[in-house]
Design a protein that fits this description.
It contains 14 helices and 3 strands. By secondary structure, the chain is mostly helical. The protein has 2 domains: 221 residues, Rossmann fold (3-Layer(aba) Sandwich); 89 residues, Orthogonal Bundle (Tyrosyl-Transfer RNA Synthetase), CATH 1.10.240. It has a 3-stranded parallel sheet. Helix 1 links the parallel strand 1 and strand 2. The radius of gyration is 22 Å and the shape is elongated. The chain binds tryptophan.
Length: 345
């Protein structure tokens, strides 16, 4: 694959779980490294999207940390990798407005995320929640992006982006490149992550291993956070829910807790899951497995945290500024062609 733009917006949270890191950030980092030689990689922080819900005053701090996480995870920078903040590229908001005048109330109010977040259109909902996917369409269309690696919950927004772009092109002349169809997006993600053992894997909640590990879990013991210290990690893993079968085997149906621990062990040590499973086959003491996993995760996080600590804020701002310079150039050019198409220029 060559000369394509791969673009994704990464929403920033206060802290990330080990599950988010291993299942999403790390695979995205590997994907970027795999394609950045011959393609453009745009990774941006959709700060304007973030403020639809949690304006908590911590966004600046959190986004710097998030970028450090990418670097510590091994993101390789070259002239094709661009990291930027959405709000530092005003063309996003500008194009969003123009697209607002092309998109319809009907198609936008069909978005599942809008329905969920607005509790089916409650009138107290802020307009940003409604407009969210149109801004997302602008994020994508400004850069002629073909592949947009996102979770399946965003596929409907990608389809909307295609529809709006197609309508615009039809009405005002060929202006936008459409992103790939969602079926092709899914294929791309599958192919690009085939050899990536972590992608698509769902680390489970330590207390309720039938569920995915989530930041919003109520119990602290349910989730391992990327900034946990060894004592915390050990306490959480030692108290993980297991079962009373008394054997260590990989069986997500009947032993989700034990299987989750084996999975985590494999991902943080880099030992293939099959090998981890055979090492523990025949063992019966869950406590021994937990101790080993606790040690592996503690070591993994300590290494990661040390790498993060080595990266200065200045380094992050340097990367952002150069990304924003690039993004403004590309986006302003596209915006001008849109403005001309609709006779605003
Ligand atoms: N909507 C995405 C999410 O909630 C974030 C996002 C915003 C995005 N703009 C984007 C992702 C453009 C891909 C492309 O996760």
């Amino acid at each position: 694959m060559e000369n394509k733009t791969i673009l994704t917006g990464i929403r920033v949270n206060s802290e990330m779980t080990l599950g988010n890191f291993l299942g999403a950030l790390l695979p995205m980092t590997r994907l970027a490294n795999k394609y950045s030689k011959n393609n453009q990689i745009n990774i941006f922080i959709p700060d304007l999207h973030t403020i639809i819900s949690d304006i908590d005053g911590e966004l600046q701090k959190n986004l710097v940390k998030e970028i450090k996480y990418y670097l510590a995870a091994g993101l390789e920078l070259n002239e094709n990798v661009h990291i930027y903040r959405q709000s530092y590229v005003p063309a996003h908001s500008e194009l969003c407005w123009i697209l607002n005048c092309v998109a319809t109330m009907g198609e936008t109010s069909r978005m599942i995320q809008y329905k969920e977040k607005s509790h089916n259109g409650d009138l107290g909902t802020n307009v940003g929640i409604f407009d969210y996917p149109i801004l997302m369409a602008a994020d994508i269309l400004l850069y002629d992006a073909t592949y947009v690696p996102v979770g399946e919950d965003q596929f409907q927004h990608l389809e909307l982006t295609r529809n709006i772009a197609e309508r615009f092109n039809h009405k005002f002349g060929e202006t936008f490149i459409l992103p790939a169809k969602t079926s092709d997006q899914a294929k791309f993600m599958e192919i690009s992550q085939e050899s990536d053992k972590a992608s698509g894997i769902r680390i489970r909640d330590l207390q309720n291993p039938e569920k995915k590990m989530s930041k919003s879990a109520e119990s602290e013991n349910s989730k391992i956070m990327m900034n946990d210290d060894p004592a915390k990690v050990t306490k959480k893993i030692m108290s993980a829910q297991t079962d009373s079968l008394g054997k260590i085997s990989f069986d997500m149906m009947n032993q989700p807790g034990i299987s989750n621990l084996l999975q985590i062990e494999s991902l943080v040590t880099g030992v293939p899951l099959q090998d981890v499973i055979s090492t523990w086959a025949g063992e019966t003491h869950y406590g021994d497995l937990k101790k080993k996993v606790a040690a592996s995760v503690s070591g993994y996080l300590a290494d990661f945290q040390a790498k993060v600590a080595e990266i200065s804020d200045e380094k992050v701002y340097e990367i952002l500024e150069s990304g924003e310079k690039y993004a403004n150039e590309v986006a302003n050019k596209k915006l001008l062609s849109v403005q001309k198409a609709v006779s605003l220029r």
